[in-house]
Amino acid sequence: IFSISAESRSVSAFTRAPSAAGVLLRKSDPWLAMLRTSSGSARMDTISAFRRATLRAGVRAVVITGGFPLAAEVVEIARAKGVSVISSPFDTVNTTLRIKSSQFIDPVVDRDVVTLPGKWTVAEARGVVEKSPQPVFPVVGDDDRLVGLVFKTDIINPPRPQLVLVDHNELAQAVSGADEAEIVEVLDHHRLGGGLKSRQPIRFVNEPVGSTCTLVARQFRGSGIAPPPGIALCMASGIISDTLHLRSPTTTDVDRESLAWLQGLCQVDLDQYVREFFEIGSALRSSTPADVIREDCKEFNEHGVRFSISQIEETGFDLFWERKDELRAALEEFADRQRLEFSALLVTDVVSNGSLLLLSRESQAWEDVNYPRLDRGLYALKSVVSRKK
User: Which of 232, 240, 309, 351 has the fewest CB atoms found within 10 Å of its own CB?
Assistant: First the structure.
């Protein structure tokens, strides 16, 4: 049932001193007599008491045979004493024979190994791994405890993460590191650009609708799946935002049908929700000028001219007039940092369906633009609510 072999060379390697090597029950041992005369719960109590006494004797390792579990109390004693516990599914005789036939570990242990911190990126680890002949590298945490193992091939040629581009199809507009990912699908409603390439054929959905959420909703409907109310409201919010509640010139019948379908799933009054949506979502009320510029920013390259256009939706222009100068300064800083010809901010009033366009500088590219000029780098764009149209 339970044994600690003092005769096994492998186990003796764990002992602190020869006298504390362990205990092997003999026929005359009083513990064995107690086991023979007890039964049921008393027998198990005797076994547990013997285990506790053995652990407190200062042994370095305990072998539990027969596949019997250790009581939680015994496990805690072993952990506190630093005792190694080995569980064997075999009986005591077979376990002892296997221990006596085992070999020392020390001769095959290589202590001069290169480890990798778990916080390192693959790029950081690659420089170390390439210079080492090791095929496998231990990964350690902050306390130098082993976290896991990583193979050299996984670092030199790591599997590429899979990525779906949604609401864009250019790597310049994708998340950082997208150029190292495997693009498996594109779901978008913008023009093509950016030289996107893939190693394998991919699913590419690009349709002239007002919102990518329309395409997502259509995939739900086509699959016969009704999204939960929260997901339905998220998709409805995307359509409302992108189409200015179906008033943008980019709005299509597909957008209208999708929003009507989602409205039946949202469990909210969408008309009331729309008013609150645009009032609460004011970027000029809650964001810094730099954040306003970055919130919905797209970069373009037309005829060798690189520029950006950001867009925000507001319920009126009052906040814009209050912050016009700091917004222009943020545009100038953004254009200089990104090395753009100019940077622009399109402020759209969802109430009047018109926009104001603020430029970091008046480029020659704007000489032929036929919009009323209100001030330096500021134009009134009546009935313009989209960067596309």
Answer: 351
